[in-house]
Each structure stands twice: as C-alpha cells, then as structure tokens.
Amino acid sequence: MLVKDWMSEHVITLDENTSIMKAIQVLKEHKIRRIPVTRDGKLSGIVTDRDIKEVTPSKITTFEVHELYYLLSELKLKDIMTKDPITVYPDDTVEYAAVLMLENKISGLPVINREGYVVGIITQTDIFKLFVNITGIYYSPYQISLLINHPNELTELFEIFKKLGLSLYSFLTWKEEMAFPIEDDQKELKSEHKRLVFIRPEEINKEKFEILTEELKKKFKVFYAIKEDISKLPQRKISEE
Hints:
Layout: E1 14-15, H1 20-30, E2 34-39, E3 42-48, H2 49-60, H3 65-74, H4 77-80, E4 82-83, H5 94-104, E5 108-112, E6 118-123, H6 124-135, E7 142-148, H7 153-163, E8 168-174, E9 195-201, H8 206-219, E10 221-227
Parallel strand pairs: 1-2
Antiparallel strand pairs: 2-3, 3-4, 5-6, 7-9, 7-10, 8-9
C-alpha cells in the first residue's frame, strides 16, 4: 500500500511570501487545515490553521480592526511556517506515513518527489479511509475474532468457510504480542506461533452466521462474533456560522 495510491493529488500550495490574510481566505474557501508552503516551487515549510490561530488572537486585543488587517497583510507565511517539515515520497508505504504521523503527533504530511516539489498530501483522513477499506466493514456487517495457535491452522479455518460455501471479505491478523493467553494446556506451542485473527465473512443471514460461529468454536478460541449496523450512523452536528 503506497502513499501515491491514497494521497490527495490536488493539493493547494502557497508561496512563502504570501500574506497570512490570503492563507486564511484559502483555508476557509477550500475547507482545509494545512497548506504546504513553497519557495521557487519547492517545499520550504507548512502552515496549519493552528499556526494562524496562534498568531491572530493576541493581536485582536491590542489593535483596532483596520490595524489588525494591515498587520496580517504584512505578515508572511515564511514568518510563521514550520520550516523543513516532515515529508514522505509517493513510493513510501502508507504504514510508514502513519507511523511518522503517530510518532510526531501530526495529522498530515506533504508528499514530495525526489526534486523536492510537492506532488500531494496525505492526512489522517486518508489513513482512516484505507483502514476502513481494509477491514471490509462497508461490505460485511459481521466480524469474528479468534485465536490460532499455529499458521497450519489457517488451513482448517479456510476449510470451514469452504464447507459452508462462504467467502471472506477481509482477513486481518496480529502477532503474539496482541494475542490472548491460551487456556488449553494440550496445545503447548511456542508463543510466537499465536495469532489473533479478525475475519469478516460475506454478508449472510443471521442463521448462517450463527452456524459459522459454532463451527469455528469447535476448532478455535473465539473471542467474539458480532454484527454491526452502519446504515444509520450518527451525524456530527455542524454549528451555524
């Protein structure tokens, strides 16, 4: 999964000599939270809505409105931008980009080519979209979590699906550090073989799902088997401006 396949290519950039007033207008007009800043076309920094908010409030209390507008028109992006921001390349993996964001507590990264020109931007929203697509929740409301003790048991898992004539929409697995302890003393296998597995079968009726769950319980430790309804999700209330 590469950054180039999930980034937003139509990224808005501004020259570092652009006024903050202009940046405020661009942020509001396009409903974005960050703007890559360039010098001679190449990335030189990044400005976020938070950067701008940190500049404007203190000035409001000491200046008249016309003075504030003049001040903001004179202040340039290069005066408040984060210089030499963390970036990724289009052929970096999305996982790498996600780790960069997580470890640095940032919500978006400019994507540049080897010459330093901005070719896109990838944000937390893009990561969420990828995650949701991987899980398959849009295609199947069912999820089952279980523990396998050895990779060889995957064959047994797939055989159950084959026997019931079912297909898998998604299959996710984590290694032993995410797995729960095994209670069955007869299965004395090394801990590195344990895998916590999350599966989403194709959308089926309740009866078929219950049959699948019971068949899996005969072979594996099943932690949960649930059905989720995303047809009526709560909607965020947007306050009137």
